[in-house]
Amino acid sequence: MGIWKMSQLKSPPMTDDAAELREYVNYLSNQIAIMFKDLDFTLNGDISFQNVKAKSLTADRMNVTELSAITANMGKLTSGEIYGAYIATREAAFPRAEINDDGDLLAVYTDANNYLTIEPGITGEPTIVIRKAGAVSLILGPAFGFTGLLANTPIVLGTQSGNTTIVCGASGTVSVPSWSKLINVDTGTSLQSELDAIWAAIGAKSNSGHTHAVTVTSGGGTFTTSPG
After folding, report:
1. How many structural domains is the chain composed of?
2. How far is CA 191 from CA 89, 172, 197, in A?
3. Residue 46 and residue 93 share a domain
4. Is 182 found in the same domain as 148?
5. Which of 5, 103, 189, 203 is 20 to 30 Å from 215 at the Cα level?
6. Residues 139 and 184 reside in one and the same domain
7. Is residue 197 part of a domain?
8. Phi, psi at residue 97, to the nearest 5°?
9. Taking the complete model, does pTM exceed 0.90, yes or no?
10. CA 180 to centroid of chain Cα atoms
């Protein structure tokens, strides 16, 4: 509640002139009306900001039910709710992070063409998207029942310390397009080429087609075996 200060009133004229007395009565009624409005505002009223100049209102603390502002230095917000707002760490400059109510929702920008976004996703699940030079370079997120990591540039999955382990469910498998896609980094050869070399070495053995008989001592008889 504010402090109300009553306006000063002029003393009544010391005269019997009816016109002058009538003028004073009109003045007095106007002043009383003004005083009533001031007092009502102090107790219950609102401020008409049409008559308040910019930066002319200062308060240590203000409690409001609803605040609408075109431009404001909000200072520190400690509680409450904000809806439909665009919030950025910088205005029209980079690098910056931002929250918006349309499109990517959350974004971190290195510059205008290189940035990371968290988007609703094509099937409704949140998806992390990284763009390089304006084009999508990596997508991480669930889609159509799968959790995917998709890149359009070479990708490295590993650790600088310790082992790298691929784990699947008890009934699951680790799938690769073919053994030729598994490459030994040290030799540059694929698992398929290594398997082919092993089979070629076996086939080249001089006794690979050798056949011999084995005698069964218990009950007699023989049978023939062959590696082919």
Report:
1. 3
2. 50, 22, 10
3. no
4. no
5. 203
6. no
7. yes
8. -120, 150
9. no
10. 39
Residues whose CB is less than 8 angstroms from the CB of residue 19 and which lie 6 or more positions away in sequence, other chains included? none
Interval 176-223: pLDDT, tens = 999 999 999 999 999 999 999 999 998 887 666 666 666 665 555 555
Of the spans 5-19, 121-135, 214-228, which averages the highest pLDDT?
A: 121-135
Q: Does 70 reside within a domain?
A: no
**Adjacent-strand bridge partners of 127:** 119
DSSP string, 141-155: EEETTEEEEEESS--
Task: Give the separation between CA 27 and CA 33, rounded to whole angstroms.
Answer: 10
Length of the chain: 228
pLDDT (tens digit, 9 = 90+) per residue, 132-151? 999 999 999 987 778 889 89
* Pairing assessment for the beta strands 106-111 and 96-99 based on DSSP bridges: antiparallel
Q: Which letter, b or e, does each residue of 54-86 get, where b requires 16 or more Cβ atoms within 10 Å of its Cβ?
A: eeeeeeeeeeeeeeeeeeeeeeeeeeeeeeeee
Do 143 and 126 touch, CB atoms closer than 8 A?
A: no
Q: Do the Cβ atoms of 113 and 133 come closer than 8 Å?
A: yes
Residue 25 sits in which domain range? 1-50
